[in-house]
Write a sequence for this structure.
DNA sequence: CTTGACCTTCCCCTTCACTGGAAGGTCCAG
DNA sequence: CTGGACCTTCCAGTGAAGGGGAAGGTCAAG
């Protein structure tokens, strides 16, 4: 299949596929005599994996690490587990941060919802922030 | 005060201060005869406001909007309230998304924590992602 | 008089994941 | 044989918030 067909099958764009090849997420594609990239259906599977990794919040670099291990003939599950552990810790940290931020922003918003014209003057920076 | 002193007083760097001036967050500074920027203590207040805005998760562009309104002699509180409302909705959306993501990632991690060697082979993409 | 700390402008670099566009080659239908 | 759809490479830019460093001016102390 050509790059346009793969893009449609995988739900992405040709630009992105060339970018992925450039970044090492896809192996350099076989070429037709005319120089067109020719893909096997495996590529769709690989791209699905990439998309699942992205949906889990992994970066392309992390997904590439997993694929590199797999491409070297090893089972990447241990590494996947480690990455997911780290990702989980990261998500927990983000949630904690956002909950704390939410409290602060909600308090500021509530204060700003009932402004006292005298203190909320243009002469000074708005006191609600 | 010179730019280095202001940077120290505001807990930032001279690079950042010139960047802020460039972005319109700080008005173009007065200059000494030698061309050095000369600031009044007001600048510290303004930078504190910028930092509080950042701590609330506002972008520099949003903070600039508030400051522009204030600099035009109007009270920015109404706009601040609108920005904080939007920010709050955004935080809630992020938290919701992260909680959903957490469930998925935790499930993947738990699956990967107990791999079955036969199915977690190098011949196929790791089934835990 | 020189040294060192500070200041100036200028331009490029960073991360992340793409996206746009130009200039040119290939392939198939009409 | 021409038009349009597809493909190729390469270069450049996006957005956020600065950071790095060069080349040169200024100022106070020793």
């Amino acid at each position: 299949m050509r790059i346009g067909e793969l893009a449609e099958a995988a739900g992405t764009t040709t630009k992105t596929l060339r970018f992925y090849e450039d970044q090492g997420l896809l192996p350099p594609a076989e070429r037709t005599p005319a120089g067109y990239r020719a893909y096997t259906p495996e590529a769709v599977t690989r791209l699905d994996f990439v998309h699942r990794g992205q949906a889990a919040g992994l970066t392309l670099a992390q997904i590439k690490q997993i694929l590199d291990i797999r491409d070297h003939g090893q089972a990447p599950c241990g590494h996947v587990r480690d990455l997911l552990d780290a990702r989980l810790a990261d998500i927990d940290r983000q949630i904690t941060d956002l909950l704390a931020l939410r409290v602060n922003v909600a308090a500021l918003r509530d204060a700003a919802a009932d402004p006292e014209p005298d203190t909320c003057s243009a002469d000074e920076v708005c006191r609600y922030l």
Summary: Residues 13, 15-16, 19, 23, 32, 34-36, 59-61 of chain B lie near DNA strand D (CB under 10 Å from a C1'). Chain B has a mean pLDDT of 87.
